[in-house]
């Protein structure tokens, strides 16, 4: 009987970096529970990932894996603890345990000074971008620890160059991403003796729907206008971020924990 595959839960899986991470992990033989709200949020002025997009990601990931049942969809809100617990439980029950959790769900809002941002938009940014990572950690870390020693668990999150740069008109987003970086460092210390690592990636301007919305908030001609701020002179691709997350999820990152890895085209230089 063949052993169960390594198993990951990925949030924000319907599109962007989350979707690219699902596809990359599937190609590398992982079983993946792809979680997304798969609906809009009335507090936010732009469309979020849809159920159709999530279905498409899961189908494509199954095709790339050569095993359609290796990737499953789970619709739910990362802000709801019971829902995230249910997602983790489904992954454990279906594949026998959890080896990695990737917090990639994110939203953006702003476009005006912090004190003028509608409160419901500010709360959505904080509750998804930081609260969703905290909620996933609360649900997933105990599952990672349920693996018998020696463990090789991985808790991963998507931070941002905004964690260290003050971006005008995006104060809540900056605050949330800085919180993610701090959380990862603290989790790394708390988990150090248990065979589980905690790391994050910090992307620069990446061609995703969030960057499209950022361009609208800044009244730019389009997301491509952000390319000029990165030394490599182009936008990053979601797959480039996913490749680093997949590395961090794998065995060759065993010497890394508490790292916030810039994948930003030199933006932080």
Q: What's this, in brief?
A:
The protein is α/β, with parallel strands linked by helices. Helices cover 42% and strands 14% of the residues.
Structure explained in plain terms:
This protein is 42% helix and 14% strand. It is an alpha/beta fold and 269 residues long. It has one domain (7-263): Rossmann fold (3-Layer(aba) Sandwich), CATH 3.40.50.720. It has a 7-stranded parallel sheet, with helices on both faces. Belongs to the short-chain dehydrogenases/reductases (SDR) family.
Q: Which helices and strands occur, and which strands form pairs?
A:
Elements: E1 7-11, H1 16-27, E2 31-36, H2 51-65, E3 71-75, H3 81-95, E4 100-103, H4 119-146, E5 153-158, H5 171-191, E6 196-203, H6 209-217, H7 238-249, E7 260-263
Parallel strand pairs: 1-2, 1-4, 2-3, 4-5, 5-6, 6-7
Beta-strand fraction estimate: 5-15%
Number of helices, counting only DSSP H or I runs of 4 residues or more: 7
Structural class: alpha/beta
CATH class: Alpha Beta
Uncertain spans, ≥5 residues at pLDDT below 50? Answer: none
- Which overall shape is indicated by the principal axes computed on the Cα atoms? globular
Roughly what percent helix? 40-55%
CATH architecture: 3-Layer(aba) Sandwich
H/E element sequence:
EHEHEHEHEHEHHE
Number of strands: 7
What's the CATH superfamily, by name?
Answer: NAD(P)-binding Rossmann-like Domain
């Amino acid at each position: 009987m063949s052993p169960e595959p390594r198993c990951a839960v990925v949030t924000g899986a319907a599109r962007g970096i989350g979707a690219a991470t699902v596809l990359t992990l599937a190609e590398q033989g992982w079983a993946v529970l792809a979680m997304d709200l798969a609906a809009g949020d009335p507090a936010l002025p732009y469309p979020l990932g849809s159920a159709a997009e999530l279905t498409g990601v899961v189908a494509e990931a199954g095709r790339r894996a050569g095993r359609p049942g290796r990737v499953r969809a789970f619709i739910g809100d990362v802000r709801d603890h019971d829902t995230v617990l249910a997602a983790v439980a489904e992954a454990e029950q279906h594949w026998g345990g959890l080896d990695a959790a990737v917090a990639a769900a994110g939203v953006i809002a702003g476009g005006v000074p912090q004190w003028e941002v509608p409160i419901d938009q500010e709360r959505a940014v904080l509750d998804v971008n930081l609260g969703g990572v905290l909620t996933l950690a609360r649900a997933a870390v105990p599952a990672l620890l349920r693996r018998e020693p020696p463990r090789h668990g991985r808790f991963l999150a998507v931070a941002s160059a905004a964690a260290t740069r003050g971006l005008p008109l995006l104060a809540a987003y900056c605050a949330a991403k800085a919180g993610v970086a701090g959380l990862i460092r603290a989790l790394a210390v708390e988990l150090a003796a248990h065979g589980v690592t905690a790391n994050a990636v910090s992307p620069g301007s990446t061609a995703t729907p969030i960057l499209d919305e950022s361009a609208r908030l800044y009244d730019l001609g389009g997301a491509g206008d952000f390319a000029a701020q990165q030394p490599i002179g182009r936008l990053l691709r979601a797959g480039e971020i996913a490749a680093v997350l997949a590395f961090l999820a794998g065995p060759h990152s065993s010497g890394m924990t508490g790292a916030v890895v810039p994948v930003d085209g030199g933006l932080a230089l």
